[in-house]
Design goal:
Elements lengths: L7 H4 L8 E8 L5 E10 L1 H7 L10 E4 L5 E10 H6 L7 E6 L3 E7 H5 L11 H12 L3 E7 L2 E5 L2 E2 L5 E7 H4 L9 E7 L3
Parallel strand pairs: 1-7
Antiparallel strand pairs: 1-2, 2-4, 3-4, 5-6, 6-11, 7-10, 8-11, 9-10
Length: about 190
């Protein structure tokens, strides 16, 4: 099993005008296994920032979309127990086995978004925050949890009842997520 997604640290160090969309799906295809898929779509500006150092933008599969954005897709597979016990797989994500073979997943939304935005004590922080709000408009982090059936969630359940989704618009992260819950959680019956 591979370790943490290579670009998660990038999400937590977003500079001014560097926009991206991130989509994380954790699927439980059966009682024993988990598949986590992270797709990050980076604007050309974000891609330039991400590739300016020694580290590659993507250690997974990299492609260009129809708008010229760079898309990095990484997939991590393993047993549910490996995922539960791997401290690097998802900082801010909790996975627990529950009675009846159910799986509970919770994402700490603060841990995912606390570092997105300008430091409050930095000179010009409010002007920077205004520029970031405008740049982030229309971009989001989307979290998905799927299995045979979603039994409980504070997210949105797909029409077929197999996926719970929670969308975090990046623009609201600048102002402290005031209207968001502390966690996105779902209780899943594993299976496909």
């Amino acid at each position: 099993m591979r370790r943490a997604f290579s670009f998660l640290p990038l999400i937590l160090a977003v500079p001014l005008a560097a926009c991206f969309d991130a989509d994380l799906t954790v699927d439980f295809p059966d009682q024993n296994n988990a598949v986590a898929t992270m797709a990050m779509t980076a604007t050309p500006e974000f891609y330039a920032m991400a590739t300016s150092g020694d580290e590659p933008f993507c250690k997974g599969e990299e492609s260009l979309d129809e708008d010229g954005n760079h898309v990095c897709t990484e997939i991590v597979t393993g047993t549910i127990d490996e995922v539960i016990n791997d401290p690097d797989i998802g900082e801010g994500m909790t996975i627990e086995r529950r009675d009846g073979g159910l799986i509970y997943v919770a994402f700490d939304l603060g841990a995912l978004t606390d570092d997105i935005g300008p430091p409050a004590d930095e000179e010009g922080a409010e002007e920077m925050a205004d520029m970031m709000r405008a740049a982030f408009e229309g971009h989001a982090i989307t979290l998905n949890v799927s299995g045979a059936e979603v039994l409980e969630t504070n997210g949105t359940v797909s029409e077929d009842g197999t996926m719970a989704t929670f969308v975090i618009p990046l623009a609201i992260t600048i102002d402290g997520m005031a209207d968001m819950p502390d966690t996105f959680n779902a209780l899943i019956q594993p299976g496909g």
